[in-house]
Design brief:
The chain contains ten helices and no strands. The protein has 230 residues and is mainly alpha-helical. The relative contact order is 0.12.
């Protein structure tokens, strides 16, 4: 792997870990949450700089179904990150406490809830849209050159199991309430196990990856059929 590809992969891995950490706000407390949140912002900027070619080609070429879906998800991720950045700074008691900000807490609280939960879903979908590339890099790193039907079947079954559990987590944790902002306060169980919490959120992330990965496969299949007809 080229050095830039390794750096890009490392940034994406750290962003994913930071995203998971931030969702467990109640398990770690204010200060760690704010510092990791600030680090997440730095990683997000680094991610865009490292993927500068994407910005250069934004208005070039044709837009097929896959490209449109990717662009919509990426735009919504950006919106959620901007909401998080603004609301996080306004509500900050540690990292940005030196800033002379007065008021705006009610709006910031709403934006933080929306940005957090939609950001998690959207970034997980973004990850799923690029899952083929991640799998390819993982195979290359592991030295796996040949495809295997058995591996594909096992991976598909594992994906279905994780996605199924992710659906249950979505319902159990009442995420729709927060995604639709039906309440301005999030129910937090301070006594829950960190391990079980992150198993739940990994499964939720897995559900989004599964959905986006197969949407991407469907888009590519439709695109290839159209190309054959031409």
């Amino acid at each position: 792997m080229k050095p830039k590809a390794i750096i890009k992969l490392a940034v994406d891995i750290f962003m994913t870990l930071a995203l998971l950490f931030l969702m467990g706000y109640h398990l770690w407390g204010d200060a760690p949450h704010e510092w990791v949140g600030a680090g997440m912002l730095v990683l997000f900027i680094a991610h865009h700089i490292l993927n500068g070619n994407w910005h250069k080609t934004l208005f070039k070429g044709k837009y097929n179904a896959m490209r449109i879906v990717t662009l919509v998800i990426d735009f919504l991720v950006l919106v959620s990150m901007l909401a998080q950045m603004y609301s996080g700074i306004v509500m900050s008691r540690h990292v940005f406490a030196f800033l002379p900000i007065d008021g705006g807490m009610a709006l910031a609280r709403r934006l933080h809830i929306l940005g957090a939960y939609w950001g998690f879903i959207l970034m997980s979908l973004h990850l799923g849209l690029h899952w083929n590339m991640i799998l390819g890099m993982s195979r290359k790193a592991a030295g796996i050159k040949n495809s295997s039907k058995i591996r594909s079947i096992i991976a598909c079954i594992a994906g279905l199991v994780i996605a199924g559990y992710g659906v249950w987590v979505f319902i159990k944790r009442d995420l729709l309430t927060y995604l639709l902002l039906k309440t301005e306060f999030v129910f937090l169980d301070y006594s829950e196990s960190k391990i079980l919490f992150y198993i739940d959120y990994l499964a939720l992330m897995g559900l989004c990856v599964f959905i986006a990965h197969y949407i991407a496969k469907l888009c590519r299949r439709v695109q290839s059929r159209k190309a054959v007809r031409k």
